[in-house]
């Protein structure tokens, strides 16, 4: 690609890659072999002799010439620029020996000289301009002294304590840098620019302000004196090429800020030059008698001076760009690369005539590929203002064509903030060059409206607003009417397009995400009147009617909008970037929206329910709308007639529908309308009682007919079965939201469960679906009875109600336990299992604690027996962790996985709430690795909660899990001595490693738990099973288990390693055979890990040392051993 003037500009990314070939790919820290003794490094060429300089990085061999010539100092006369310095590519530092960390005071005190610029800038409360003025006054008196102070400032700001003496400025700056490098004694690796804390953040800002203010205050004369800028630029250029990261980072920041300040000066010089040139031309064009020759000469001299100054500044900028920026924009330190990208963006925006050129833009384009998110972000932030400027956007056409694909790809960046800025940049490109983006490019951004990150999704919605969802003024002017002549609202075509967009995206479960993306930037998603008209009004002559899919989609979008507007909360998974508490302004918006939607749907909803009364999918969404109403509006707006209409429609729906989703939504909405204390409570309560009466009566009629037929040994037909199942479904669903105990249904519901359990009626039991509803109904009946005792119980009947509830609860849980054990189907077992899990939590020993003045509820507390714990554990092992063949249907497999996760979560809640002992989790933890993809998050959370309850118990449970798997491996291969080469043993080791990671980094906090785990593991490994007879010198059969426990050794502190080693030696033996075979290797490995490299002779076994049984361990040598054996021998868990 050629530019006018014949200059060839290379814009392709390959150029960047060629440059990057010198270092690790994509800005990674370079790695190279250690420097050899005969190698000539730049430090040696300068005369340096340090062997291992702290935080100093050696050069890469390929970039270093055998001898490096001294850098030519930057001078004005002649204005010949020195050769560009070679780039320093940093590599990973050599492994350091341990050293004492510098104290905070030592870190801070780079200098204690209160007269130094560093001390003043860091500690003084004076404004930076005052500090600069003082330095300028000093400079005018004594240049050399002031320059030394300024140079010392840059050295100290790098964290170096070295001091420049008065003789150094007369020398080459390379000598100064070499001397400061040799005196750079900071070993902590920290320096002011990267130090944490507010004071260092303030210093960094003051440092930048100082550099820029210095140039600003010196812009009229001093920067042109051929002394200050020559020396400062030369020093910063040399420091920016240093091996010392602190020098390089600090000097690059100073140089970039210096260039930015020079750009500001150049702008002012340019304005003054234009003014002088205009005044000169005006004076020159005057007639001879009116022309002032002295003024003309003055203006000519002024213009010449300004032109020279501009050339001077441009030379400075060009030199610094080539000497600093070109090498540092791809430095190995991300902070340095980020500084370069930030500042070049500023230069392009301010001094576009000099920097907004393809020869400079290519550096930003190449760096868009940086592997560090913050650097990529700085590139986009530099580009956004350029594309937003009307004056500058015309110069970006070539850049856009070359790097458009990369910018579009960055919308999928793993760093969400980068993705947001990339989408905004694509929006700018779309506005400037709408034809440059292909359909494929746009589709990439389209899909981002479903992103889990709210910022990315909303940015993508902005893109869609620009490209698709814009109101067409021509369409507005040509109004479309419905069949009966009503004019369609302006947003009608947009909503039609939104519905079609949602359908074509094929992500039909993410309607709430789509709405959330548009809710703050497009008012169409709140235009409920427009949506309602589309659903209720017949289409006009020029309109196409909505098909069934479009209607369902529109209703889903409408209900999602209602839900979010009424609550102010984004959908699940989108709330991470949103404040938990609404601000006063946001709260007012929510209240206004809630009032508007209530006023509209109070009138429109009954019509919608009537219109779609036969469509279960649409009714499920529509019936949820009243849950977001402001109920007071029914009375304040005198809408009682519409309330009665709504209640009548709901009663009709409960009568004719059997779809579970419809019935559940209707029951929840009825519960909301019956909120106690609302003005409409009485009317809604009457309607609720009527609905419940109808459902209960139908159930009683159906079950009586069923039992009559069974008693007469007749077979019910399909209608009678349907009546029983459908009526039970409605009763169960209503029971979940409303207290039906006054209709006395528990005995009738439990009777069918009892008959199934006892087998009294043989094969003439209710269908499985009906029995599940019986189980659920009894569960809700028991819980509503408890709720009544907690809130409304009459003291006169308290004892009677307590005993009745206690009896019902006990017989119900026992029946559920038997159903799990001998259930007819997995669905019945699952319903019984979930009821038990929830009931054990509700009726735990905390029941009377959480309710004030409810000591009488202690009689209802229920503790799971060992038998019940075994039953539910077996259920989890069979239903959740058993290996099953996939049926190949994705939807079915997802549903099954969801059900299994619920089963596992129900069991884990019992452990988390300390309902059952922590050791019951051993059979769960052992599946952590094998089932990580399916249940890893649940098991990990349980592991963390168990540790919070009791660290020791949790550690012992881990050990029990490992022991259980070890025994399973023995059983699988039918041998007590398993091979470490089998895959199962490798998996067991990996599981131990995963358990080890869960303990975190605080070894002291976990000290007791880790020690207990090691003791328990040792006991299992060295104890001889009672049914195994071995030769006297044969290793214990489970000795290999020590290699599993060895994974936890790195969590032991040094003192505890010795204690565990002594514990091992007391139980293994005092002497070992001299010819130790491979079977003893696990013991040797474990002991070596405990010794941590110390030389120690392993203990050996005496004759019959391993024939002791567990009962013999109780008779140890001292009381301490007895206590240890009692605690660890059986791996008992403390609750």
TrEMBL record:
Transmembrane segments: none annotated. Residues 1-57, 71-108, 1092-1135 are annotated as: Disordered. GO terms for biological process: sister chromatid cohesion. Residues 282-316 form a coiled coil. Keywords: Coiled coil. GO terms for molecular function: chromatin binding. InterPro entries: ARM-type_fold, Cohesin_Scc3/SA, HEAT_SCC3-SA, SCD, STAG. Residues 325-410 form the SCD domain. Residues 81-108 have a biased composition (Basic and acidic residues). This is Putative sister chromatid cohesion complex cohesin subunit stag/irr1/scc3. Residues 1117-1135 have a biased composition (Acidic residues). Pfam families: HEAT_SCC3-SA, SCD, STAG. GO terms for cellular component: chromatin; cohesin complex; nucleus. Belongs to the SCC3 family.
